[in-house]
Amino acid sequence: MATLDDKLLPVFLRQHWLVTLDDVVSCGGSQQAAFGRIQSGRWANAEHGVYRLIGPTVTWESRLLALILAAGDGAVASHFAAAVLHGLPGFAKGPPEITIPRGQEMRRSDARLHTSTDLDRCRCVLINGIPTTDRERTLLDLARKLGDARLLRSIEAARRAGTTDWSLLISTLARHARRGRPGVARFRRVILANAHRTEITDSDFELLVLAMMAEVGLPAPELHHRVHDGDRFVAEVDLAYPDLRIAIELDGSHHADADVRERDLPRQNDLVLCGWTVLRFSWTRFSSRPEQVMSEIRAAIVAARGQQA
Fold it and tell me: Of 166, 194, 213, which residue sits at a domain end?
């Protein structure tokens, strides 16, 4: 019959020679059983409710995982620690650094602790058995700490390794963008300054604009809104405020085609004749002057609301 130690061995092996009290209980043991092994010198307390097997070397990874296990559900390695785990160049194994969901309590002087309300917007990945923020969220978190040049070097290292691309980074920016969210402005700035080296799709362009609108506090528009004049279909616009009759058209690379431009002109005129304000922005304009684009959208909203008053 398997003993408690036999049952816990696979757990020790996959968790850097660590087990939690919950692991002990799920294998048929108790807190008293754990205490007895500590008293006998077979185990040691690693963190509150986390035990380390005596013998194997204590590593940076085991210290990091012990902190995560002690923090509880949802805790992940993040920021500089996640950068190390993802193999991004230029990051050393420093103090353990983790993020926990907002509302969980933990205080430590020998570790870097962050709380977050948006961990559900990223994937948790296991790297060497350690729960970690995904690569794109890690880069966004690093944007709070790094300058533009070093952040770009980290992004480029991940792109060269084939582990991320501009579309994934843009999607991450869009999911996390909100007013006052640390790191978002620098992350966006670096993307806008460098993503032109790979063709940006229309959907990526839309996500970048939506992210910045959220960042500056503009109301969220409807995507791909279909405009009708009675029973007649007029157009489908990229972004819209239907109640204000504002259409925002984002001209990606395919708009350089003369046939597309010719098709867009009567479509735009039809929208205007139906009482819509139409704002058009090219990728070049948005990437070089994003703040001005946001100002024009805000001005159109203010003007439309004034007309409704």
Answer: 213
- For 19, residues 6+ apart whose C-beta sits below 8 A from its C-beta are 8, 11, 12, 50, 51, 53
Is 240 strand, coil or helix? strand
Residues 6+ apart with CB under 8 A from 242: 222, 225, 227
Rounded CA-CA distance 19/15 in Å is: 7
| Total-model pTM | 0.85
Confidence of residue 195 (pLDDT cuts 50, 70, 90): confident
pLDDT tens digits, one per residue of 64-108: 999 999 999 999 999 999 999 999 999 999 999 999 998 888 888
How many domains does the chain divide into? 3
Task: Give the domain-ending residue among 169, 184, 213.
Answer: 213
Give the angle 99-100-101 at the CA atoms, nearest 5°.
130
Burial 15-45 (b: 16+ CB within 10 A, else e): bbbbbbbebbeebebeeebbeebeeeeebee
Please, are residues 18 and 69 in contact by the beta-carbon 8 Å criterion? yes
